């Protein structure tokens, strides 16, 4: 993944691990961060792109088991990754 085009500039993305106190206030946290003009976009998700440790789900389609990971994201997630 280090040389593959991921569709976004990973060098311009900052990932923060959110603690349990902040979890219920993510919109307020985004609002406060948005006051910094250096920050172009803000979003949150349950996983970091390319880092799929944790639980996975599976579904059977046409007799074949397919595994996938859930990634819960906010409405700004794709716009944030597309920022270049």
Explain what the structure shows.
The protein is of the alpha+beta class and 84 residues long. Helices cover 21% and strands 12% of the residues. A hairpin with a 2-residue loop joins strand 1 (57-61) and strand 2.
Average pLDDT figure:
80
The secondary-structure class comes to alpha+beta
What's the helix count?
3
Helix and strand pattern: HHEEH
Number of strands: 2
Distance N to C terminus: 18 Å
Low-confidence stretches are: none
Strand order of the largest sheet: 1-2
Radius of gyration from CA coordinates: 16 Å
Task: Please summarize what this structure is.
The protein is α+β, with helices and mostly antiparallel strands. It has helices at residues 20-23, 26-33, 77-82, and strands at residues 57-61, 64-68.
Keywords:
two-stranded antiparallel ribbon, alpha+beta, 21% helix, single chain
Outline the secondary-structure elements.
Elements: H1 20-23, H2 26-33, E1 57-61, E2 64-68, H3 77-82
Antiparallel strand pairs: 1-2
